[in-house]
């Protein structure tokens, strides 16, 4: 997919069908696979502005468990690269979308371990983000000063507050494309 410039096609499809949960569920799964494949693939997704589109789709379909699981995994994979971490930190609601996806995954008993690492990397790289992480209810997944997980850390399957909220389509598309 990455070699044939399929990433751009997938992102265009996500934009054109932003209201369609089924389309974006498959697109997020594909972007997760591509992002987890290699540094070169992660670079392609970042250069094609995949991170803002992932955030827009995850925000729009905030109650879709498999979309959120694949979305947080893709964001976490992209954040393993310095430019991905920077892009996630600077994305308008990137931190909040990541935490919201993690909350839904926890509630639905889905794995989101990689996202914990990305959230910790964000907090370590930019301490100013701690306020946003805390406001989004994500502080529970950050390691304490000694590097240990906090005693009140939420694990998959534990009851958490529901995640909701959908932004307008124009705002999402504009945020995702920079238009």
Tell me the helix content: 55-70%
What is the number of helices? 10
**SS class:** mainly alpha
Quote the beta fraction: under 5%
Inertia-based shape? globular
Please give the alpha-carbon distance between the first and last residues. Answer: 26 Å
Largest sheet: none
Rg:
15 Å
* Total DSSP E strands: 0
Secondary structure layout:
Layout: H1 6-16, H2 21-37, H3 39-47, H4 50-60, H5 65-78, H6 82-90, H7 94-107, H8 113-125, H9 130-135, H10 169-177
Structure, described:
- By secondary structure, the chain is an all-alpha fold.
- The chain is built from 10 helices and no strands.
- It has helices at 6-16, 21-37, 39-47, 50-60, 65-78, 82-90, 94-107, 113-125, 130-135, 169-177.
- α4 (50-60) packs antiparallel against α10 and α5 (65-78) crosses α7.
- The protein is globular and about 45 Å long.
- Mean pLDDT is 85; it is low at 162-170.
Provide the descriptors you would attach to this structure in a database record.
mainly alpha; 63% helix; 10 helices; 179 residues; single chain
């Amino acid at each position: 997919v990455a070699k044939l410039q399929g990433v751009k096609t997938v992102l265009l499809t996500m934009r054109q069908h932003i209201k369609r949960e089924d389309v974006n569920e498959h697109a997020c799964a594909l972007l997760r696979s591509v992002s987890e494949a290699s540094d070169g693939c992660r670079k392609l997704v970042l250069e094609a502005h995949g991170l803002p589109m992932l955030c827009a789709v995850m925000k729009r379909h905030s109650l879709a468990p498999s979309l959120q699981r694949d979305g947080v995994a893709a964001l976490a994979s992209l954040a393993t690269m310095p430019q991905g971490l920077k892009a996630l930190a600077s994305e308008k609601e990137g931190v909040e979308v990541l935490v919201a996806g993690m909350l839904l995954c926890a509630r639905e008993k889905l794995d989101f371990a990689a996202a914990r690492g990305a959230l910790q990397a964000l907090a370590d790289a930019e301490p100013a983000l701690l306020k946003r992480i805390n406001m989004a209810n994500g502080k529970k997944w950050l390691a304490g000063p000694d590097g240990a997980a906090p005693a009140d850390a939420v694990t998959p399957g534990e009851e958490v507050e529901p995640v909701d909220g959908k932004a307008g389509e124009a705002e999402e598309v504009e945020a995702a494309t920079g238009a």
